[in-house]
Structure formats: structure tokens, C-alpha cells
Amino acid sequence: MRWEPWRLPCHHGRMAWFSTGAVDDFLAEAGEFLRAERVRNTVILTVTESLRVSGQAPASEPPARGAPLFGYWRPAPGQRASGHSRVGGAFMITLGFPALLTHMSPQMAADLVGHLAACGRLLQGVNAEEEAAWAFADAWRRHTGDVAEVHRRMRLFRLDKLIAPHPAPRGTSRPATPNDRALLIDWLGAFVIEVGDPPTQDQGAAADERLSYGGITIWEADGVPVSLAGVTRTVDGMVRVGPVYTPPAQRGLGYAAGATVAVSQAALDAGATDVLLYTDLANPTSNALYQRLGYRPVEDRLVLSFGPAGAAS
Predict the structure, then answer these.
(1) Is this structure's pTM higher than 0.85?
(2) What is the model's pLDDT at position 25?
(3) What is the DSSP string of 199-264?
């Protein structure tokens, strides 16, 4: 079979899902669809931009096991994607993270499982709108026997009007520099453990990537780093704040608010039109904080984890 880098040879029947390991090919097919709702598709747009810039996703070879995989739903003859003539849904899978689905119908999500099963792709979970997440999980159980449990409920926020905290926290912000690399590795690793994300990422590489475009701000009190806030690369006028991390001994003093306001204002000053962030709905402190700073809810998402029946007990 002749290899086409933008289409894995694993579609079958009447399914309309296509997948690729090549970022540029994926964006050529699905970019217009993603940008039509860029705020809701912030993660796929910012991750693919980082992969594109760093060259971490292959340009022409079949993706190896564990390599990033991207895909899109295109209507079959006689069908029509709602609001779009070509693409009606998309997904992204990166190492150690659940499959990330854009807005799509529960049926499209269930059909995607068949496509991924035909590709031989193994998954640890799914991140999607609630109905699509459960439809995907039910289809995954039928294919694999794995059951789903709720890992996290998330809320996407968009900055409306930035509101500085009052009273202002002690200290000031500064851009992180290569001299902060060891501290960044330590704090980024601590953040991953604390929020329950997979500890598979090379935090040294993550720190270097952030430093390469000024994507980390440190809050200092009396010359001592006490908090940090990250921001993604700007894509289509949009940035996403995160992670925001304060060591436990420094919490409750407003440092996270100061760091968040600093990176949010810097993004606005640099021309960003949409400043976004995600919160864990199980953390009422952070949800209340970001709303006090001027962030407003956009949508909720559900993250499910997959595993053998009875494993969690």
C-alpha cells in the first residue's frame, strides 16, 4: 500500500475519520475548523503550534507508537458537517495524555473509537465535552473491556477585564531566565504531581521550551522566588495561562494572583485578543481566584481515565 502521510490506512466501512502524525497536514485539513472556535480549541491549537515550532511531530513518516496522533472527521458522500463544508470534528493524542476531542456529537465520538481501534492505538483516557466523553468511553469499553472513571472535571475561562488583586501581594514579577532553569524543573515537576497529570514529560525540555519564547514569569518577594505562572505561545491572537504554581509554604499570601495578573497583562500588552486558562472544578480556591481577577467561564470538560474492570478497587 502506498503511504500517504496525512491519512493512516485504518479507516473502514462508512467511517469518516482520518488521522495523521504530521502537524502541517493535520492543520491543512482541520485548521479552518479549529480556528472557527479557537477559544474552545485552544489546547489543540497551542500544542500543535509548539510541536510545529520544535519539530517534534514527524513530517512524512508514519507515527511511531506513542508519537503524537491527530485526526479529523470529514463527512461521507451525502453527509454534511454542521456549519462546515469539510471537517466537523477533530482529535489529538499526545504521549501520556488522554485523547483530546473537540466539540462533536456522541455518535462521532463513538465512531472515533472504531477508527483508533483499527489503528491499534492504546489510550489511557479521554478529554471531551461530557456527552461525547461518555459515548467515547462506552464504545472503548465495548472494544477493549476497559472501564472509565472520572479523573477530572475542568472549566475553561476567558479573560473579560483584568482586575488587579486588592490588597496587592508583596513583591514583583520578572521574566524567568536560564539561571532559573533548576528551579523551573523542580516547580514544574511538583505541579504535575500535585494536579495528577502523567509524570512522563521531560521537565528540563519543558522548561527550555518555555524559556525559548519567554513563557514563564516568576513572582518574587524580597528577592526570593515564591510563585510562577506560565503562558503558551500566541496562536491566532490567543494565549493560555498555565501552569500557575506556588510552593505550599508560600500559599495564602496572594503570590499566585500576582503572577497570574502579571502574565495576563503581559499577554494583553503583546497584543493577545483572547487570554484563557483552565481550572480543576474540584479546586474551589483557584476557581474563585480567577473569577476575582476577571476571568469568566466558557465551557466545562470531562476527563475520564480508562483501566481494566476492578483495577481501581
Answers:
(1) yes
(2) 92
(3) TTS-HHHHHHHHHHTT-EEEEEETTEEEEEEEEPPPBTTEEEEEEEE--GGGTTSSHHHHHHHHHH
